Amino acid sequence: MPVASNPGCPCAPHRPAAQFKPFEWIEAERLDPHQQIQAAFLNDARDVVQGACTLAQLLAWDEDRRDADLSATDPAPLFDACQRGALQRLLSVSLSLLHARIESQCDALTP
Known about the structure:
Elements: H1 33-67, H2 81-109
Helix pairs in contact: 1-2
């Protein structure tokens, strides 16, 4: 299902813009090796989530451009339907892979 039409997605245009706590990079130099691995994963996960929300906002904006009555001076949509679908699938796969990795990390912590 496209991200922009999913009412459960915090990035969907039908809901107020999600407000995230600003991401803080975890400095791994002073951590033990196991914590360094966790810090690297968390930093990567934050980047993926932030990128996914940014892409979802861009796709929503682009769909609004497509649906709007544009004058000759208004910018045209950036993506055609094929490109938009590909980006929506990229979003879905990226978040699914992140979810799977989070689940495996949680399973590893469960006794």
